[in-house]
Amino acid sequence: MMKDITLGQYFPGDTVIHRLDPRTKILVMIAYIAITFCVQNFWGYIVLAAFIVISITLSEIPPVFVIKGLKPIMVFIIITGLFNLFLTGGEVVWQAGVFKITKEGIRFAAFMVLRLTFLILGTSLLTLTTSPISLTDGMYRLLKPFSRIGLPAHELSMMMSIALRFIPTLMEETDKIMKAQAARGADFENGSLVQRAKAMIPILVPLFISAFRRADELATAMECRCYNGGNGRTSLHELKLEHRDALAGVCMVLILAAVIFLNIAVK
Amino acid sequence: MDTIIKAENLKFEYRNDETDEVTEVLKGVSIDIKRGEFVAVLGHNGSGKSTFAKHLNAILTPTAGRVSVCGIDTADENKLFEIRRRVGMVFQNPDNQMVANIVEDDVAFAPENLGMPREEIRRRVDNALAAVNMSAFSKHAPHMLSGGQKQRIAIAGVLAMEPEIIVLDEPTAMLDPAGRREVISTVRRLNRELKMTAVLITHYMDEAVSADRVIVMDSGRIVMDGVPSQIFPQVERMHSLGLDTPQATELAYLLKKSGFNIDGTVLTVDDCISEISELWRNKVGADD
Ligand SMILES: Nc1ncnc2c1ncn2[C@@H]1O[C@H](COP(=O)(O)OP(=O)(O)OP(=O)(O)O)[C@@H](O)[C@H]1O
Ligand SMILES: [Mg+2]
Q1: Residue of the nearest CA to atom 13 in ligand 1?
Q2: DSSP per-residue codes, B211-279
Q3: How many Cβ pairs closer than 8 A exist between chain A and B?
């Protein structure tokens, strides 16, 4: 059951989108997020929608997968939408007791919902098309220049890749401990919230102890393999920018230009 | 053959920071290990085997005495990585020695740390995976592999340093019999074909039988040192040190003790069978 939880749900493939340099994808994503916040009218969202639809098509990922990314955050989107709908002042179009809906409210709520939806769609497309390893790699390369001013770029990426490495191991272990405790009569499904939380303690304690032991052994093993922090370290993987990366950049600039133009042109 | 590992009166103690109590774990270990030798280290729990192993690549340094590896003193801090790249160390739990979640990235870890150029890392990763017969798994995730396969990846991870010595601290303790065979035959092949010096710490006597030399440790000292056929037939001595002997040797010992005229130095099941059939034939011959 614990094994079902996957991190960043990577959907392997070999399409243009998959093959883009992770640095490009991260930067495009940052630009995309900025653009979603720039958009001031519905035409802008049509541009973004076109971008998303084309990207999903190119990535050959079944659209349901991308849309599934919205599920966990749906409640949040709806609540945000409702708040904006009812709590924005202005020209009243509908009223029932204390509840009133204004023209501005409708507009605000729609924008908010669209903005969040596009944010989630974009980021899940990123994690679906980029393996956690290359995401880490890309992040490291992007942050590396900042290590001069004290940003621990190597440490951050090392921490992230070790975390990724140990998530399945610890999941498996949690599963084993839960089964062992259940065999001794522990009950994780029934009872009040407090009772269930209490039932978790006998799982967490051995899990933590084992995690510390693992960390200790891993540190020794890393030292044995000449680990000495990030200094002078090289990498097996080569990140190379290709034509397609330039193309992705140009697309982003065009989208930004289009959105700004639409903001000015359509009032 | 020249000496590759030399320990001279090596002593090591742990100091408990709270009580200031000092435990002496190694109490004067002296040993010469020759280039290309396959040495098995035995000893009951807590006899100091792991502590000794950690002195071979400067994870620990002696409190007193000296250890030198390939002519380099392990206490020389400037030569730390010179030593570690020459001595590959493999531990018991394969899960806790892997850093990356793709096999080839994990094997690349050491050469990356050593700052090697990309082509050289590639070459070493491919060679190391081929040496442990795991080339087909280079893109796999380690947690999907069997125990024996994981441990072979851990071996490949140290082979990527192209070490002269490989030290294995109970590498088979967590494996099933099939996994144990995979790992031990890999180590043996590295020793025979690549002439790598191997130090194998183990609790399994049948793994020690095929070594060139067996060392037995007891409370921080080396108490026995010799070829397997000298060490194992001393069944009573081994028992008094809290150790078993290979089942074949044990059986021969018991038969001998019960008055049968059998060679007590047999180590393998095959030898034991031929000895017993010989005994049987003689007995049948005598009865006729
Ligand atoms: N970090 C430590 N602090 C204090 N004492 C330690 C430490 N590590 C090991 N010891 C002690 O040193 C002794 C030898 O330990 P070591 O791990 O070398 O034994 P071993 O022969 O490898 O045993 P095993 O067969 O159980 O692996 C033990 O008595 C142990 O309690
Ligand atoms: Mg040990």
Answers
A1: B46
A2: SSEEEEEETTEEEEEE-HHHHTT-HHHHHHTT----HHHHHHHHHHHTT----TT--SHHHHHHHHHHH
A3: 93
Domain with B56, as residue range(s), is 3-228
Point out the ligand nearest to the CA of residue B169: 2
Band of residue A215 on the pLDDT scale cut at 50, 70, 90: very high
Sequence-separated (6 or more) residues with CB below 8 Å from residue B239: B245
Question: Is B235 inside a domain boundary?
Answer: no
Comparing CB atoms, the residue among B102, B122, B161 nearest residue A226 is: B161
Regarding whether B265 and B210 lie in a shared domain, the answer is: no
Ligand 1 atom 5: the closest Cα is on which residue?
B14
How far is A88 from A85, CA to CA, in rounded Å? 6
Query: Average pLDDT for residues A39-59, to the nearest whole number?
Result: 92
Last residue of a domain, one of B228, B258, B276: B228
Does B148 share its domain with B208? Answer: yes
Residues B13, B137: one domain? yes
Tokens 């790598």: give the residue: B196
Q: What is the mean pLDDT of residues B107-114?
A: 95
Q: Nearest to residue A229, comparing CAs of A131, A153, A146, A134?
A: A153
Task: Tell whether B241 is covered by a domain.
Answer: no
Cα dihedral A157, A150, B110, B127, rounded to 10, equals 70
Same-domain check for residues B83 and B207: yes
Asked if B267 and B210 sit in the same domain, the reply is: no
- Pair (B121, B251) in one structural domain: no
**Contact by Cβ (8 Å): A199, A187:** yes
Residue B236 falls inside a structural domain: no
pLDDT given for residue B176 in this prediction:
94
Helix (H) or strand (E) holding B67, with range, is: strand B64-69
Chain B interface mutation, best of A236, A238, A239, A240, highest count of B Cβ atoms under 10 Å: A236
Best mutation site among B69, B83, B101 for testing chain A: the one with the most A CBs within 10 Å?
Answer: B101
Taking the CA of residue B166 and the nearest CA in chain A, the distance in Å comes to: 11
Report yes or no: B174 at the A interface, CB cutoff 8 Å.
no
Residue B281, pLDDT > 90, answer no
Same domain, B128 and B251: no
Nearest CB among A168, A218, A238 relative to B97 is that of A218
CA of B4 to nearest chain A CA: how many angstroms apart?
A: 18
- Tell me, yes or no, if B255 comes closer than 8 A to chain A by beta carbon: no
Which CATH number goes with the domain that contains B63? 3.40.50.300
How far apart are the C-alpha atoms of A124 and B169, rounded to whole Å?
Answer: 44
* Residue ranges lining ligand 1, Cβ < 6 Å: B 14, 23, 25, 43, 45-51
Q: Is residue B44 part of a domain?
A: yes
Instruction: Look at residue A231 in the predicted model and tell me its pLDDT.
Output: 84
